[in-house]
Amino acid sequence: MSLLSAKGLSKHFNGLVAVEDVSLSVPEGQVRALIGPNGAGKTTLVGMLSGRIAPSSGAVSFDGQDVTVWPAHKRIAAGMGYTFQITSVFPNLSVLENVALAARRKVSENRRVIETVNVALDRVSLLDRRSEVAGDLSYGHQRLLEIAMGLAQSPKLLILDEPTQGLADGEVAAFNTLIDELRGNITVLLIEHNMDVVMQVADFVTVLDAGKVLFEGTPDDVKASAEVQAVYLGGGDAAA
Amino acid sequence: MMGGMQKSLLLHGGVLVVLFALQFVLPAYHHGNLARIMVLASYAMGYNLLFGYTGLLSLGHALFFAAGLYGMGLAMSQFGLSAGIALMVGILLGALVGAVIGALALRTEGVAFMIVTLMFAQAGYLTVLYFGAYTRGDEGFVIAQADRVLLSLDLSDPTVRYFAAFSVFCAVFIMCYLAVQSRFGKVLIAIRENEDRARMLGYDVARYKLAAVVLSASLSALAGASYGLLFGYVGASFASVQYSIFPLLWVLLGGAGTVLGPLIGTLFMFYLIDLSSGITTAYMLIAGVVLVFLTLFAPQGLMGELRRRVWRWLP
To answer: Is the dihedral of CA B77, B81, B87, B89 positive or negative?
Structure first.
């Protein structure tokens, strides 16, 4: 059964077509990667899925409900976790309070909030930094903090917009391990530039080009596809 | 070694004890001043909830202060209601005006929000002048001493007045202290720090912001209504732009986003003007220079600076 599906999603910005008639369906428990060259419309598409951008036409359904007209916060409350492409934490608050804010939406009892926070921070190996101010963390750690904030909400679907961008090699490896641990428990929609990460962690890949779905298949299919290669090599925007 | 929570309780509780005790030792002049300062600081605390904690800069809070003041005053002068009921009318009117203005002004952000709130407050000021037949415009009206009675206590008596002002201050102070450490308050802080992130954690940001405006407006109205009742005068100058700027100044000086800041800021500003006007007629010059130095060396206000340097646990 599909947890998240989009039907005929389009977005036009004053005549400019950013996303054109995209349909996709992510089954429960899958790690789905969304790839494509710069300007393919990945972030716009994810914006429509998460409710940050209103679609020009089309419909989104999540967990058996039509959420097309729902505001973003309502979709999040219904079980979508979201991390921003450009790191977005509460820089002046402690690491602990950052994750507690995520946890507190669902859990009210203080002791359980702290428990949830500790579990989430432990998952991304930030537990020993919990009393530091979030803005003082390194860039890579802030990205992990944002993932911890997503995890603390125990979402049904976790949307990660370029989570490994700017991470060191060791941190990327840790990220891959984290996704492997989550596999099966939650559904992940991963927007990713790093092909190595996609090949390693994705169960299924959707390739977007010029606002349309160009190709869908397993990572191996994608690797073998001449179409995808043409877009990536011909577009002059080879993956990192 | 005490935890931050105990230290903070001790400090804030201590401030209340000191304010209560001061009435027995202060000479009459300062006694009266402090009663005034406590009511005005309540206004500043209401303002701080929106500005310091939610990060919304309103330039129109005089409208809420005046809604409380006139709601209370007109209920007494026009409808002959008793002081207690009139006080309630003032607070309710403030909450109502807050809900309406909030719903409209929150459609904007940043500078536009400042301008929209400023314009609404000016409209409120002009409304007071327009209905001069009832409000007596700039001249204002006096609430007779005989009517200023609450629970059979004469509010014009200095001792009673001090105690009433202290009660209002206490109520607002304790409420703010608890509110900013509650789940609700922490969401407001999250909105101040990063609104988009708060929304994408699933919080209905628009609803929280509206609730913050209504709460802030209600506290401002409570302060306005109390001020009129305790000092017996209702006038249009309280609805003017000056009274929108005052709470901003007090909060900035004392420390935005701290529970104690508004009291410290109001106290500081009041005595700065009081003392410098005793030295020279150009007292605004002295006040101005001090303010410039404070913004230079303590941009986060007095309590904000203290929190940054010493008391990290200050709520």
So the answer is: negative
Instruction: Tell me which residue in B183, B197, B199 faces A90 most closely, judged by beta carbons.
Output: B197
Domain of A145 in residue numbering reads as: 93-154
Q: How many domains does one find in chain A?
A: 2
pLDDT more than 70, % of chain B: 99
One domain, residues A100 and A54: no
Closest CA to A81 of A107, A100, A103, A111: A103
Q: Indicate yes or no: CB of A73 within 8 angstroms of CB of B186.
A: no
Examine the predicted complex and report whether its ipTM is higher than 0.90: no
Angle (CA) B56-B57-B58 rounded to 5° is 110
| Per-chain mean pLDDT for chain B | 90
Q: Are residues A166 and A149 in the same domain?
A: no
**Residue type for position B293:** F
Segment among A46-50, A89-93, A169-173 with least mean pLDDT: A169-173
- Two tokens at B116? 């929209």
Whether A70 and A170 share a structural domain? yes
List b or e across A16-55, with b for residues whose CB sees 16 or more CB atoms inside 10 angstroms.
eebbbebebbbeebbbbbbbbbeebbbbbbbbbbbbbbeb
Is residue A5 within 8 Å of residue A60, measured between CB atoms?
A: yes
Report the number of distinct structural domains present in chain B.
1
> Quick check: B183 and A104 CB within 8 A?
yes
- Assess whether A30 and A42 both reside in one domain: yes
Is A235 found in the same domain as A116?
no
Per-residue pLDDT of A109-125, as tens digits, reads 888 999 999 999 998 88
Q: Which residue of B has its CA nearest to A83?
A: B200
CATH code where residue A214 lies: 3.40.50.300
**A116 domain-assigned:** yes
Spell out the SS3 assignment of A14-75: CCEEEEEEEEEEEECCCEEEEECCCCCCHHHHHHHHHCCCCCCEEEEEECCEECCCCCHHHH
Are A150 and A164 in a shared domain? no
Residues of B with CB under 8 A from a CB of A: 183, 186-187, 189-190, 193-194, 196-205
Q: Closest residue of A to B308, CA-based? A: A92
Regarding whether A163 and A110 lie in a shared domain, the answer is no
Q: Which residues of A touch B186 (CB under 8 A)?
A: 97, 100-101, 104
Q: Which two structure tokens, joined as six digits, stand for A230?
A: 């043409």
The residue-averaged pLDDT of B48-71 equals 95
The answer to whether residue A199 is domain-embedded is no
This prediction's pTM? 0.89
Summarize pLDDT for B202-256 with one digit per residue, the tens: 999 999 999 999 999 999 999 999 999 999 899 988 999 989 999 999 999 999 8
